[in-house]
C-alpha cells in the first residue's frame, strides 16, 4: 500500500473512534429513556464498536510501517489481528446481551416512552449505516482487512438496530412485553453469526490462503498475455497479506536466451500483473528449458499463451 492510501486508511480508522462513541451515547440515551432490554443489548454491542475502533486505529497505524530487517515482507498482516480481535469482541457482546436479556424473559416489562427511544435509536442506526457503507467500500478498494471487518461489524449493528426498532414497535402495539427480551436474544444470535464470519475471514489471511479464484484468473491472464518469448509457467503461488498480494512462479525460457532477454520478459509480466493488482509483490524464478520442472505446470487463460 502506498503512502497516500495508507494515510487514508489511518484517517478512516481514526474517525471511527469519535463516531462510535457518539452512536454509543445515543443508544444508551435511548435505553435510559425507555428501560428496554433490547435497546440495552443494542447499546452493549456499541461498546464493542468503540473498543474495536480503537484497536483498528492502532493496528492500521502499525501495519502501515515500512518493511525493516525484522519484518522484510512488511507489517501488513497486523490488520488481520485487528479483525480477529473484533470477531472475538462481537462474540463477547453477544454473551453480554444474553446475560442481560435472559432474566427479563421471565419478568418482562413494556418499555417507557417508546416513541422517543425508538427515534433516538433510529438516528444512531442511520449514522451507522452510512459509516458501514464507507468502511466496506474503502476496505475493499484499499485492501484493508481491518476497515472491511469494522464495516461488516457495524453493518451487523445496523441490522440489529433495525430488528430492535421493529420488535419494540410490535411489543408496544400488541402489549406483549416478552417480545422485548426475546428480541434481545435474537439480536445476540445474529451477532454471533457475524462474529464467526469475521473471525473466519481473518484466519484465512493469517493462514496465507490463496487469493480468490477470480483474482487468480486475472493474474494468469496477465501472465499469458505478456509472456511472449518464454516457454511456459509453473508452480504459481499467491497469498494475501493485508493490503498486499504476494505472487511467485517459475518462468521457463529457451536455454540459449540471455539473462537480459529473460529479465525483459519478467519486467513485462510484472508490469501487467501490477496493472491488475497495484500492490502486488512479485517473485519470478527463471529457469532454462533443459531444467527438469519441479512444480505444477500452470494452465494460463486469456491472451496469447506462453
Automatic annotation (TrEMBL):
Transmembrane parts of this sequence: 12-34, 46-64, 80-102, 114-134, 154-176
Domain Cation efflux protein transmembrane: 19-207
Chief location: membrane
Subcellular location(s) per record: Membrane
Aminoacyl-tRNA synthetase among keywords: no
Record InterPro entries: Cation_efflux, Cation_efflux_CTD, Cation_efflux_CTD_sf, Cation_efflux_TM, Cation_efflux_TMD_sf, CDF_Transporter
Protein topology in the membrane: Multi-pass membrane protein
Alphabetical keyword list: Membrane, Transmembrane, Transmembrane helix, Transport
Cation efflux protein cytoplasmic domain residues: 212-289
NCBIfam families: CDF
Family label: Belongs to the cation diffusion facilitator (CDF) transporter (TC 2.A.4) family.
PANTHER family, A to Z: MITOCHONDRIAL METAL TRANSPORTER 1-RELATED
Name recorded for this polypeptide: Cation-efflux pump
Amino acid at each position: 500500500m502506498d503512502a497516500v492510501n495508507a494515510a487514508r486508511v489511518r484517517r478512516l480508522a481514526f474517525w471511527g473512534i469519535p463516531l462510535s462513541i457518539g452512536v454509543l451515547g445515543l443508544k444508551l440515551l435511548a435505553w435510559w429513556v425507555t428501560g428496554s432490554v433490547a435497546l440495552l443489548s443494542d447499546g452493549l454491542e456499541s461498546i464493542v464498536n468503540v473498543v474495536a475502533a480503537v484497536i483498528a486505529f492502532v493496528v492500521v497505524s502499525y501495519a502501515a510501517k515500512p518493511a525493516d530487517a525484522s519484518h522484510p515482507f512488511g507489517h501488513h498482516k497486523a490488520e488481520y489481528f485487528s479483525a480477529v480481535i473484533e470477531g472475538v469482541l462481537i462474540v463477547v457482546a453477544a454473551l453480554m446481551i444474553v446475560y442481560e436479556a435472559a432474566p427479563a424473559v421471565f419478568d418482562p416489562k413494556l418499555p417507557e416512552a417508546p416513541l422517543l427511544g425508538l427515534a433516538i435509536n433510529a438516528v444512531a442506526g442511520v449514522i451507522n449505516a452510512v459509516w458501514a457503507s464507507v468502511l466496506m467500500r474503502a476496505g475493499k478498494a484499499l485492501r484493508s482487512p481491518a476497515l472491511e471487518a469494522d464495516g461488516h461489524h457495524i453493518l451487523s449493528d445496523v441490522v440489529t438496530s433495525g430488528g430492535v426498532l421493529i420488535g419494540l414497535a410490535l411489543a408496544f402495539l400488541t402489549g406483549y412485553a416478552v417480545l422485548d427480551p426475546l428480541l434481545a436474544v435474537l439480536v445476540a444470535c445474529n451477532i454471533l453469526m457475524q462474529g464467526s464470519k469475521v473471525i473466519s475471514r481473518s484466519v484465512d489471511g493469517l493462514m496465507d490462503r490463496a487469493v480468490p479464484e477470480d483474482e487468480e484468473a486475472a493474474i494468469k491472464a496477465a501472465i499469458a498475455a505478456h509472456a511472449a518469448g518464454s516457454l511456459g509457467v509453473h508452480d504459481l503461488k499467491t497469498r494475501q497479506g493485508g493490503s498486499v498480494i504476494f505472487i511467485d512462479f517459475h518462468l521457463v525460457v529457451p536455454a540459449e536466451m540471455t539473462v537480459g532477454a529473460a529479465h525483459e520478459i519478467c519486467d513485462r509480466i510484472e508490469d501487467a500483473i501490477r496493472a491488475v493488482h497495484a500492490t502486488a509483490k512479485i517473485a519470478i524464478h527463471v529457469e532454462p528449458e533443459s531444467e527438469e520442472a519441479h512444480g505444477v505446470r500452470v494452465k494460463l487463460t486469456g491472451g496469447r499463451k506462453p
